[in-house]
Amino acid sequence: MRTRYLVSYDICHPKRLRRVAKAMEGYGVRLQYSVFECALDEKRVNKMKAELQPILNHDEDQVLFVSLGPEDSSHGLRIEAMGLPYLARSRVTIV
């Protein structure tokens, strides 16, 4: 079963920032510059974390993983936006 995650990152160096952003594009949909929504099973979550691990400077950078619950349930999920509207994104992943 897949779980939806909100993944947000704050990366201090531009080169590492580009590498993290590129890696994240393979796992989810960009909602904002440094925020992705990802529907992943446990294996893919572990793969994503393993891919990010060597990119990060663990003394300067931060990546947050927020579980939004099971992908097939929107119970309790509420996303609101101010300014530009939030648009539901396609969850099609092309590898």
Topology:
Layout: E1 3-10, H1 14-24, E2 29-32, E3 35-40, H2 42-52, E4 62-70
Antiparallel strand pairs: 1-3, 1-4, 2-3
Uncertain stretches of 5 or more adjacent residues:
none
**Average pLDDT metric:** 86
General shape = globular
Strands, count? 4
Distance separating the two termini: 20 Å
Q: What's the story with the biggest beta sheet?
A: 4 strands, antiparallel
- Roughly what percent helix? 10-25%
CATH architecture: 2-Layer Sandwich
Biggest sheet strand order reads 2-3-1-4
Radius of gyration computed on alpha carbons? 14 Å
Strand content: 25-35%
**Helix and strand element order:** EHEEHE
Count of the domains: 1
What is the count of DSSP helices, taking H or I runs of 4+ residues?
2
Structure description:
The protein has helices spanning 14-24, 42-52; strands at 3-10, 29-32, 35-40, 62-70. It has 95 residues and is α+β, with helices and mostly antiparallel strands. It has one domain (3-70): Alpha-Beta Plaits. It has a four-stranded antiparallel beta sheet with strand order 2-3-1-4. The two termini are 20 Å apart.
In short:
It is built from two helices and four strands. The protein is of the alpha+beta class and 95 residues long.
Structure characteristics:
Alpha-Beta Plaits, 95 residues, single chain, alpha+beta, 23% helix, 4 strands, 4-stranded antiparallel beta sheet
